[in-house]
Amino acid sequence: MHPAIRLTMLVGATAAAFLAWTMLSRRNPERPAPAPAVYRDPEGIDRLTSVAILRFYASPGVLVEGDRATVCYGVAKARSVRIEPPVEALGPSLNRCIQVTPAEDTRYTLTAEGDDGRTVSESFTIQVQPDPQLLPKVVYFSGQKKGAPGEAVHSLCFAVENAARVSVDPPVIPSMEGAPRGCFYVAPRQTTTYTLTATGRRGRTSHRSVTVAVP
Known about the structure:
By secondary structure, this protein is mainly beta. The protein is built from 1 helix and 14 strands; from the N terminus they run H-E-E-E-E-E-E-E-E-E-E-E-E-E-E. The protein has 2 domains: about 80 residues, Sandwich (Immunoglobulin-like), CATH 2.60.40.2470; about 80 residues, Immunoglobulin-like, CATH 2.60.40.2470.
C-alpha cells in the first residue's frame, strides 16, 4: 500500500476513535450522577428497629390566657399517634406542628404506636398565666359616717373592675352580679371589719377591707 494512503487511513481511524470516545464520555462522564437524596437524621432514624418519638415540645411554654402555642412532634416507625388532651386529627410524621390554646395549665402527652403494637409516650406542661388586664380589681372601698351624733351608721361605697360578682363579708347585703360600683349602709353594734370581694373569670378574686369603729 502506498505510504500516503496508509497515513490517511491512520489519521481517519484516529479521528473516528477520538469522536467515539468523546460521545461515550458525554454519556458516561467520569463524575458519577448524584445518588437520590436519602433522609438521614443525626439521631439515627435509619437504625431504628421500633417506634420512637423524635421530638415533642411547645413554643412558648408559658402563655398569657387567650394566647396560642405551637406544639411540634416527630415520630418514626409509627402507625398511629395521638395527643392528650385531644387536639386536631393527627398522623405519623417526622416533623409536624399544630396550634393549641389552653385555657389553664395543661399537660400534653404524645403517644405513638408501632406496627408491632409497642407504644412510647412523652409529656410536657404548658403554663397559662392570667392576663393582668382582665384580673378582677377593687378600685376602692371606703366608709363615711352618717346619721346623728352617737349613731354608728356608715355608708360604704365601692368600685370594681372585671368583676362578675361582688360580695361582702359579713353578708350585710346580697351578692351583686356585675355591679361595677355601689353604696350600702351598715350600723354595727361593735367595731366591725367589712371585706369586699370582687370575683372575676375562673374564680379569681380581689379583696379590700374597711373597719367601722364603734365607740
